[in-house]
Design goal:
Blueprint (H helix, E strand, L loop, with lengths): L3 E4 L4 H15 L6 E8 L10 E5 L5 E3 L15 H16 L4 E4 L4 H4 L5 H9 L4 E4 L5 H8 L3 E4 L3 H11 L17
Helix pairs in contact: 2-4
């Protein structure tokens, strides 16, 4: 089993729900999961503010999109918000964790921005990664992740089987510290 599982085969809403479900099932006193998933605030008056990245450890949310006004055709991605989320996750990875969940590898990550640095930090720390990749970005994903990743469906059987195969034993009851030389 490869240390990175990228989900495909369903809508983003279903995939983000599957990621959240995994976090809920697998979290516990002996499992430290860090990362971000996409959440939607239906009560937000500004449509650009509805979709956010939520930090799995702190609950802090970061904007994904920005309001560029009516008629704008420019990219609405809120690069600063996504990069801020990435930096928060990188700090958590350095503190040690059992699993990194990253909402997706998309347009920004294909351009080596967005959550790219969090992906790289998790790989450097030899920590399993659970993510998603839209079909449009599969070629960029394959160039980025190479032989470390496999694709999977967002169903409980696939996800739980992958997690059982890649889960590492803990050291003294704590997550293994970041870095390939850690015990």
């Amino acid at each position: 089993m490869k240390p990175i599982l990228a989900l495909q085969g369903a809508s983003n809403l279903i995939i983000q729900g599957a990621l959240a479900s995994c976090v809920a099932r697998w979290s516990g006193p002996d499992t430290r999961i860090v990362g971000v998933i996409e959440v939607r605030d239906e009560a937000a008056r500004d449509p650009a503010a509805r979709d956010r990245l939520q930090d799995l450890r702190t609950g802090v949310t970061y904007p994904i999109y920005q309001d560029l006004g009516p008629g704008s055709t420019a990219c609405r991605l809120h690069t600063d918000g996504i990069i801020a989320a990435c930096e928060a996750v990188r700090l958590q990875i350095r503190s040690g964790c059992d699993l990194v969940v990253l909402s997706k590898f998309g347009k920004l990550e294909a351009a080596r921005s967005g959550l790219s640095a969090a992906f790289a930090s998790a790989v450097e720390a030899e920590t399993p990664i659970l993510t998603a990749v839209a079909p449009l970005f599969v070629p960029a994903w394959q160039a980025f992740a190479g032989p470390l990743a496999e694709m999977g469906a967002p169903d409980a059987e696939t996800l739980d089987g992958w997690w059982q195969a890649v889960r590492r034993p803990r050291v003294d009851g704590r997550p293994r510290p970041a870095g390939p030389t850690a015990p």
